[in-house]
Automatic annotation (TrEMBL):
InterPro entries from the UniProt entry: MoCofactor_Util/Proc, XdhC_CoxI, XdhC_Rossmann_dom
Protein name per Swiss-Prot or TrEMBL: Xanthine dehydrogenase accessory factor
Top-level taxonomy: Bacteria, Pseudomonadati, Pseudomonadota, Alphaproteobacteria, Hyphomicrobiales
Organism field: Bradyrhizobium japonicum
Location of the XdhC Rossmann domain: 127-261
Domain XdhC- CoxI: 16-81
Classification via Pfam families: XdhC_C, XdhC_CoxI
PANTHER family the UniProt entry points to: ALDEHYDE OXIDOREDUCTASE MOLYBDENUM COFACTOR ASSEMBLY PROTEIN, XANTHINE DEHYDROGENASE SUBUNIT A-RELATED
Domain of life, per lineage: Bacteria
């Protein structure tokens, strides 16, 4: 088995395991370079190269920096490592970007040029639903269509139908979850509200929501704070969950929640796109 095949095999394994990583591929070389076009490397979320090779220190620093940025914003980028004299001819400085290409200086004696495509591979966003209400079941089904990895947690006795979810937990003990961007929704609607909300408060996420009225949330908030829960963590919850679309049916309420989650999920990318359009 070649190194190239081994890298692609590991890519498949890491994607299946919902792990975030960067695939760096050398797409062009000019003059003498250690790595040639087609060379690949997998860069883990902690910045280590776990497989493959794209050359030595001449390109490594610039690629690792681009990898960190790509994992942060989810956008691929091209890095061109060139000797100082060629950068001067192009009228660019090391660290400058032009037409979607980030330029870096090659200080190695070889004085070659390498263009490396840096592609982030992110796990599916994680939607954790606590409860088996009609809204919860509809939310799970709709979210899977949109590419979310759905975990539904509820006592088996509360589930009147088989949830359309990637993972089903009996009860509200969530255990270990993936490191993906996470959204948590409590949709118990009268069955285990307190225990589910307690579990949700203890779960880190980019979005927390409670399917219920403000009055009900206020009552639950008082109980949990009396038990020692953090008021700041509880106040982070959106209640009622979802955008105000005038939703009535469980399906419509689920849709409004997904619309709100989508807005939160894309917030950083939208800002990045707006900034790019101004350049």
């Amino acid at each position: 088995m070649t190194a190239h095949v081994e890298v692609l095999d590991l890519v498949a394994q890491m994607k299946a395991a919902e792990r975030a990583f960067v695939l760096a591929t050398v797409v062009r070389t000019v003059s003498v370079t250690a790595a040639k076009a087609g060379a690949k490397a997998i860069i883990a979320a902690d910045g280590t190269i776990v497989a493959g090779w794209i050359g030595g220190g001449c390109a490594k620093g610039a690629v690792l920096k681009a990898a960190r940025e790509a994992l942060a914003d989810g956008e691929p980028r091209m890095v061109s490592v060139q000797p100082e004299n060629l950068l001067a001819e192009l009228g660019v400085s090391a660290g400058e970007s032009r037409d979607g290409i980030r330029f870096a200086s090659n200080m190695c004696p070889s004085k070659g040029t390498m263009d490396i495509f840096v592609e982030p591979v992110l796990p599916h966003p994680s939607l954790v639903i606590l409860g088996a209400s009609p809204v919860a079941l509809s939310l799970a089904a709709q979210a899977r269509v949109l590419g979310y990895h759905v975990t539904l947690a509820a006592p088996a006795a509360d589930r009147t139908a088989q949830p359309d979810a990637d993972a089903i937990i009996d009860g509200y003990q969530l255990g270990e979850l993936s490191d993906a961007k996470r959204f948590v929704v409590v949709s118990t609607q009268g069955k285990g509200d307190e225990v589910a909300l307690r579990a949700a408060v203890a779960t880190k996420a980019d979005y927390h929501a409670f399917v219920g009225s403000r009055r009900k949330m206020a009552s639950l908030r008082a109980k949990l704070i009396a038990e020692g829960a953090s008021s700041a963590a509880i106040d982070d919850f959106k209640a009622p969950a979802g955008l105000d679309l005038g939703a009535i049916t469980p399906e419509e309420i689920a849709m409004s929640i997904l619309a709100e989650i989508t807005r939160e999920r894309r917030r950083g990318q939208r800002a990045a796109n707006q900034a790019a359009s101004r350049e």
